[in-house]
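Could you help me review a protein record that somebody else here produced? This is what I was given.
***
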Amino acid sequence: MEIEIIAPMSPLPIDRAFVLSMTIKSFKGRRDVEVHLFRHSWDAEEEEAVDWDKLLAAPNMSEAPEAAGSRHVILEALTEEERDSVVEYLKEHYANRLTAISSGPMPFPVPIGLMALSDLSEGKSIGFIHFERIPHFNLGFALRGFYDLSQHPPIVETEANAG
């Protein structure tokens, strides 16, 4: 399993600034499925405590309806400590099922008008891994994984393999 952790090249404007993904070898009949890991819930007080004008690309628009998704994208990000604890958890429990874990800092300022993963609904090919349903997941924060199966090749058994 390859682990790539990209360090920030400059100081980050907020601690909650790290994105994280994993690649699962085989998942729901697909090969090498990339799963984007994110916090899916937070306290309203946390959202209110952030100075959004310092983080969003359109100052003075942080309260506009089109900024809500962009605010949620930032709130979905992990702190460095959270990221490191998730990486250790994945290594301990899923190392033989993963081909890669990747993380890096989110680029700032964040554009207005983004759609947050926590604002999406599951569909035919997109869905979520609900870590809160896994008995041994106890990292102390809400974590989900977003995947889109349509972006990954199916695992097809050929005649030679069926043999």
